[in-house]
Write a structure and sequence with these properties.
Layout lengths: L7 E7 L2 E9 L2 E6 L10 H6 L3 E6 L16 H14 L5 E6 L1 H13 L3 E7 L19 H7 L4 H7 L6 H17 L10 H5 L6 E6 L9 H8 L3 E6 L6 H4 L1 H8 L11
Parallel strand pairs: 3-4, 3-5, 5-6, 6-7, 7-8
Antiparallel strand pairs: 1-2, 2-4
Helix pairs in contact: 2-3
């Protein structure tokens, strides 16, 4: 896990327990929520965003250094806690970014508190049942195989995980999978209620998806656009599910709303 100078590690103390946060950069506030495989430290994606924003990368409860909430049984529970953490950090009119499972939690946050935010960016979010295809069930996969399935490019996978069979990584992934099993098991990785609650979200939303996403079908992007009143879709050619790890430059450009400077399918 990457550590950098100029990045602050902090603990946001809530009544429900502490939330670990890494913060860096300067500018408009931006809160980032991670994938179901947990936080990977201060990644290149965070560093790129920190060139333009004050970035807060939070470990959601049950992931990384934030303790599990034994009572939590739905992503809405995590959303409530993360909204409390954002408020305790003093975030107002902030940009909220969520990837994969973190995108689901971010969408739940926006459904109930979108007036507190400026924009929402979702990278291949979970939370909506695919009209076609299925969501890959990580419980049926070996941790390394699940990680590999999230990349469209083998070289990018190797660069991010040079030793995918390491015990330390497997232990972290196992802990994350236990949290997912507790709060997103039935139905797996989607909610029947979420699409309906999103219809009143009066917030500019950007949805990015990898063209070769083998975890959540890229066709789901259109379903998000159908329920969100103000939604733009960006498809990244050749990319898989873990966009922040596989193509951080491209995703950071989309978050910064300067994607026109980069070539490729939109």
């Amino acid at each position: 896990m990457m550590r950098e100078t100029g990045v602050d590690d902090m603990s946001v103390e809530l009544a429900t327990g502490p939330i670990h946060v890494r913060a860096g950069g300067g500018g408009r506030d931006l809160l980032v929520l991670h994938h179901d495989v947990g936080p990977m430290g201060w990644t290149r994606f965070h560093a790129l965003l920190a060139e333009e924003f004050r970035v807060y990368a939070a470990d959601m409860p049950g992931f990384g250094e934030s303790p599990r909430l034994e009572w939590a049984r739905h992503p809405r529970d995590l959303a409530a806690v993360m909204l409390a953490a954002a408020r305790r950090l003093g975030l107002r009119d902030y940009i909220l970014v969520g990837s994969g499972f973190g995108g689901w939690v971010a969408a739940e946050m926006a459904a109930y508190a979108h007036p507190e935010m400026d924009r929402l960016v979702l990278a291949a979010p979970a939370g909506i049942r695919p009209d076609g295809g299925f969501i890959l069930d990580q419980m049926l996969e070996e941790p390394a195989a699940y990680l590999r399935s999230g990349f469209g490019d083998t070289a990018a996978f190797g660069a991010n995980f040079p030793d995918p069979a390491s015990t330390e990584l497997k232990d972290r992934l196992d802990a994350c999978r236990e949290t997912i099993a507790r709060i997103a098991w039935r139905p797996y990785m989607y909610s029947y209620e979420l699409p309906e609650t999103l219809r009143e979200v009066r917030l500019p939303v950007t949805v990015a998806w990898g063209e070769n996403d083998a975890v959540i079908p890229a066709g789901c992007a259109a379903q998000w656009a159908d329920v969100l009143p103000d939604c733009a879709i960006h498809v990244i050619p050749g990319a898989g599910h873990f966009l922040d790890l596989e193509c951080p430059e491209r995703l950071a450009a989309i978050v910064a709303d300067r994607q026109a400077a980069l070539t490729g399918k939109e």
